[in-house]
Amino acid sequence: MSVNSNQVITKLISLGVMANINQEIDHDTASIIAEEFGFIVVKHEDEVASEETNEQEMLDFEDKEEDLIERSPVVTVMGHVDHGKTSLLDAIRETKVTEREAGGITQHVGASTVKVNDKRIVFLDTPGHEAFTAMRARGAQVTDVAILVVAADDGVMPQTIEAINHAKAANVPIIVAINKIDKPEANPDRIKQEITEHGLVPEDWGGDTICVPVSALKKQGIDELLEMILLVAEMEELKANPNRRAKGTIIEAELDKGKGPVATVIVQKGTLKVGDAVVTGTAHGKVRAMIDDKGKRIKEAGPSTPVAILGLSEVPDAGEHLYVVESDKKAREIAENRKEKIRMEQLKTTQKVSLDDLFEQIQKGEVKDLNVVIKADVRGSIEAVKQALEKLSIDEVKVKTIHGGVGAINETDIMLASASNAIVIGFNVRPTSTAINLAKQENVDVRTYRVIYEAIEDIEAAVKGMLEPEY
Ligand code: GDP
User: Which residues pair with 406 in a beta bridge?
Assistant: First the structure.
């Protein structure tokens, strides 16, 4: 305000606030004083943020323990290309999915429900850790169990390692499906050895990773695999309250010429009903119709049910949360507010973690782990850097390598970093051009080095608050 501090203090004292120059005053007092000097006070972002937190709490309230009942697991299949992810999903569907309803509606739902004994398992149709992590970067996690497919004739490959690290970063339990055991050259023991090197120790070797030998082609081992999924789900104690306003996550959405926006949502809490007022991202509307994965029109969908819904005002993004609210008016209001906020945010981009302001974030208590994704030209460098970096951990902050891989910095590295609030470090490798663009869009800090000690010096300086800013 370009007002002398003495004038401010005098004004405060005249209002009965005995303040000194180092003291903080609250927002209301500050506005009154500012107005006295002819200024209007606008609320700081942090306070706006706390109002948003309230909105979030209103939408996403916690349930009481006694209201929770068991719910079905939602499963994603991951693994290296050509190891049999699609074939495995097909084999499961062919052996287990009951026929489509006669006269059912042809509607792609993006997930399939399988019945095993009297339980259900939901499989997401899009395999791979890319889709999984892209959702997580949007703040959504729908997967309860990850199936890691490893071909017994090929072994652990780069994308197998990526999948392991992406699932671990998300804290999702992994079941290993050792596939293609029908092949004469299949060697399941070698697979077990190789996954052990990546921290997945098989049960029969004293660890806690369940491995199931399967053949997607010959449809062998499918029942055992499904039983193991149910076992892991049971250990995870997956529960939800079906008797509340629904909350779910969009897994797919598209604009249909005849039907308008169609979105597939996996209901996670509560029961979604036809007629409910919903908001998801900047889309809102009333659920006009719901179609399940068998093409049947349904009126209600409980926890862990995938359904396509009609009636939204626009096509939402995959990974958006969907909430039922009390009225159409409220849904529209929230969606409009979000649009306004996005408009404001486009004016200023917010960095996630960056080395430049790491120390400040540590001091504010915003960062406790410094997550790092390392890419290098040779495997030896990854281990060397990993160990050197982890030694830099101090009391306030732990340096943690969440993924290391050989090759250029690619889009999935950026998405993993974005989802895990990590920085990406490259040694003698560069980001691909799509990765560079994505990093800008996601505000991920990517740094490349030629020698290891330079990276270590930079991180050490950042952790201790002594990094020279990069201009
Ligand atoms: P994805 O890229 O991981 O989805 O792999 P696909 O499901 O497309 O499978 C890649 C190839 O492996 C295809 O030619 C499949 O027929 C073959 N394949 C998949 N599962 C098996 C299996 O259990 N045994 C054999 N012999 N081949 C398989």
Answer: 376
